Automatic annotation (TrEMBL):
InterPro entries reported for this sequence: CoA-bd, NAD(P)-bd_dom_sf
Pfam families xref list: CoA_binding_2 (PF13380)
Stretches assigned to the CoA-binding domain: 14-108
Designated name of the protein: CoA-binding domain-containing protein
Length: 155
């Protein structure tokens, strides 16, 4: 099922989650993680940046965390900007903290981690970008309305 997700499956995830930890977040405005964090904030998600090299810094007023276990409060989704070989450890940590979704960015696939996460009850999305999914015209209005009670991004 890796990389073969229905639009309804993705829409349901993006509509239901409230908090998203972004593992591999970067302060570099040219990096995809920076842009994705901004878009997720725009959509009203509680975003928690995770990068042990950035602890002590903040992005959009949000403090970086060293790892998932150092985050206070529930995390619904873990969005990963790390290499495929790092995904297994992140999946294990996501399970330990009680996350509901493991999501990896474009070109990041680890089938063993996906199986582990799914067996633990997490929904899994790999090789997709939530920013791009939220931009789909048939997906975005519904998610935006559910999340904010507004009709569009400009409301």
């Amino acid at each position: 099922m890796i990389d073969n997700y229905s639009d309804e499956y993705l829409k349901q995830i993006l509509a239901e989650v409230k908090s998203i930890a972004v593992v591999g977040a970067s302060l570099n405005s040219h990096r995809d993680s920076f842009k994705v964090i901004k878009r997720l904030i725009d959509y009203g998600y509680r975003v928690i940046p995770v990068n042990p090299n950035e602890v002590g810094n903040d992005i959009f007023g949000l403090c970086f965390h060293a790892d998932l276990k150092s985050i206070d409060g529930p995390i619904d989704m873990v969005d990963v900007f790390r290499s495929s070989d790092a995904i297994m450890g992140i999946a294990q940590e996501a399970i330990e903290i009680g996350a509901k979704v493991l999501w990896t960015q474009l070109d990041i696939i680890n089938e063993e981690a996906a199986i582990l996460a799914e067996k633990a009850g997490l929904k899994v999305v790999m090789n997709r970008c939530p920013k791009m999914e939220l931009a789909k015209p048939f997906l975005a209005p519904g998610v935006w309305s559910i999340r904010t009670g507004k009709k569009g991004l400009k409301d």
